[in-house]
């Protein structure tokens, strides 16, 4: 099993030809923010080709120093009123240049972030992942990854959902449609458009299916190298929202929208040697290196959960008998475990991380998986026996139960500091603190229902 050739991509020559023919007129210059969202600007194609493609653009550095509502907040070393909120550089990664089929005439390019002296912005999610990929490459290894990303689709538009306060929305399906081909067929025009236009944008979608919660669906993509997989994830998530909006729908990737099943983002990963040969598996079982990699994931998953579950809402998904894990355990084809060994033979044998939800930042999650696995390889950790049966009933370590716990585990993690650096750790601890403070200062509908009259 080797990564498929890239398809559906553009080159600068394609852009020039598209500009001359009138087929292309706009280039979206994008970066990934702390939530894994695409931020950036739309450029006239002539300006991009003449001034940016072989150089850089500029953008306010507050994009990595805000809360989820894009409010300026305190606590970020590089971005504050005291520092004047200057710019960093958007440096186009031309390997990511692609057409945006859902915006005719437009192309998109992902960017790395750099300071004015061209030093990389260490706290940017794409750079954090690049750092862990470089550590793997120093050992002659490459990580391949793929995500299964779930979402809930509603028949209201985003504007209608906003004006309704996100209450009393109409799910796109009326009942559990997990694997169903019945009630999902009326959504096939939209789902088919998602699959086809993602392929035309250079992604490689494999399949879509209904899920358990009302209106819930999933689309899966073929594996790619870790950085490409993270880019694909971010581009797909952004594009799916735009396509849904064009069709009059809205979509949420919240980890837990309501009291029913949450939305996951199961991440599959395997390792390859420089020649593309599998190194995690031997026949139908893990190799010694594979066992050490998985042992590292198990040993470090709790303290790196902040990168898998970054929001208050993320932790409401971890419930017993919900297909979301509560115990740190691994098992072969066992969906009750945090880590599930998938595939029957090398080279398809791979590990699936079931902790992340639909709200995950893919760059940070993949970086954390690589860092944890490398720790297992470097320390030659021994893999514990696989879980047999129901991991929910086990007595092993638990997935952190709330963001406060995950924040403290991350703060105390020697691995996080060694792998990512103190600057990155401080930056994302501040992000967690802002989320926690915002939550504890909010007055919720739940509180009003319980306390308005009866307290």
List the helices and strands and how they pair.
Layout: H1 12-21, E1 26-32, E2 38-44, H2 45-52, E3 57-60, E4 87-92, E5 98-99, E6 106-114, H3 125-138, E7 141-154, H4 158-163, H5 188-200, E8 205-210, E9 216-221, E10 224-225, H6 226-246, E11 250-252, E12 265-273, E13 281-282, E14 285-286, H7 288-300, E15 330-332, E16 339-342, E17 350-353, H8 362-378, H9 403-411, H10 414-420, H11 422-441, H12 445-451
Parallel strand pairs: 1-6, 15-16
Antiparallel strand pairs: 1-2, 3-4, 4-6, 5-6, 7-9, 7-10, 7-11, 7-12, 8-9, 12-17, 13-14, 16-17
Main beta sheet strand tally, sense and closure: 9 strands, mixed
In the residues, how many domains can be counted? Answer: 2
Q: What is the CATH topology assignment of the largest domain?
A: Creatine Kinase, Chain A, domain 2
Shape: globular
Helix coverage percent: 25-40%
Give the helix tally: 12
So, the CATH homologous superfamily of the largest domain?
Glutamine synthetase/guanido kinase, catalytic domain
CATH class descriptor of the largest domain: Alpha Beta
Q: What is the count of β-strands?
A: 17
Gyration radius, rounded: 22 Å
CATH 2nd-level architecture of the largest domain: 2-Layer Sandwich
- Compute the separation of the termini in Å: 62 Å
Secondary-structure element series:
HEEHEEEEHEHHEEEHEEEEHEEEHHHHH
Description:
This protein is of the alpha+beta class and 455 residues long. It folds into two domains: 110 residues, Glutamine synthetase, N-terminal domain (Ubiquitin-like (UB roll)), CATH 3.10.20.70; 316 residues, Creatine Kinase, Chain A, domain 2. Helices cover 32% and strands 20% of the residues. The protein is built from twelve helices and 17 strands. Helix 5 crosses helix 6, helix 9 packs antiparallel against helix 11 and helix 10 packs across helix 11. The radius of gyration is 22 Å and the shape is globular. The N terminus is likely disordered.
């Amino acid at each position: 099993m080797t990564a498929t050739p890239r398809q559906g991509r553009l080159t600068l020559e394609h852009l020039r030809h598209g500009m001359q023919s009138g087929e292309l007129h706009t280039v979206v210059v994008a970066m990934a923010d702390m939530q894994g969202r695409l931020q950036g600007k739309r450029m006239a194609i002539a300006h991009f080709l003449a001034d940016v493609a072989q150089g850089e653009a500029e953008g306010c550095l507050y994009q990595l120093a805000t809360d989820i509502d894009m409010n300026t907040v305190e606590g970020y070393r590089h971005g504050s009123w005291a520092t004047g909120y200057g710019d960093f550089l958007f440096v186009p990664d031309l390997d990511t240049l692609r057409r945006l089929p859902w915006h005719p005439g437009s192309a998109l390019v992902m960017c790395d972030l750099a300071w004015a002296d061209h030093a990389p912005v260490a706290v940017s999610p794409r750079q954090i992942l690049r750092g862990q990929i470089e550590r793997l490459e120093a050992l002659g290894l490459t990580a391949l990854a793929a995500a299964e990303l779930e979402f809930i689709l509603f028949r209201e538009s985003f504007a209608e959902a906003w004006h309704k306060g996100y209450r009393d929305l109409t799910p796109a399906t009326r009942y559990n449609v997990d694997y169903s081909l019945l009630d999902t067929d009326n959504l096939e025009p939209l789902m088919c458009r998602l699959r086809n236009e993602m392929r035309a944008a250079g992604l490689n979608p494999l399949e879509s299916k209904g899920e358990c919660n009302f209106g819930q669906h999933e689309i899966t993509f073929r594996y790619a190298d870790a950085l490409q997989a993270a880019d694909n994830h971010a581009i797909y998530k952004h594009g799916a929202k735009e396509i849904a909006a064009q069709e009059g729908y809205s979509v949420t990737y919240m980890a837990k929208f309501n009291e029913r099943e949450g939305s996951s983002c199961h991440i599959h990963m395997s390792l390859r040697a420089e020649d593309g040969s599998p190194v995690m598996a031997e026949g139908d079982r893990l190799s010694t290196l594979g066992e050490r990699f998985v042992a590292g994931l198990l040993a470090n998953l709790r303290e790196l959960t902040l990168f898998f579950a970054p929001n208050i809402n993320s932790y409401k998904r971890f419930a017993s008998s919900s297909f979301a894990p509560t115990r740190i355990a691994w098992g072969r084809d066992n969906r009750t475990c945090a880590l599930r060994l998938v595939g029957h033979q090398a080279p398809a044998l791979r590990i699936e991380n079931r902790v992340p939800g639909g709200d995950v930042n893919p760059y940070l999650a993949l970086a954390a998986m690589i860092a944890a696995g490398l720790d297992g390889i470097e320390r030659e950790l021994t893999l514990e026996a696989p879980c047999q049966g129901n991991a929910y009933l086990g007595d092993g370590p638990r997935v952190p139960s709330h963001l406060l716990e995950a924040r403290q585990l991350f703060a105390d993690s020697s691995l996080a500091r060694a792998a990512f650096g103190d600057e990155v750790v401080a930056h994302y601890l501040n992000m967690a603190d802002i989320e926690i403070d915002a939550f504890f200062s909010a007055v919720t509908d739940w509180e009003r229902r319980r306390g308005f009259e009866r307290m």
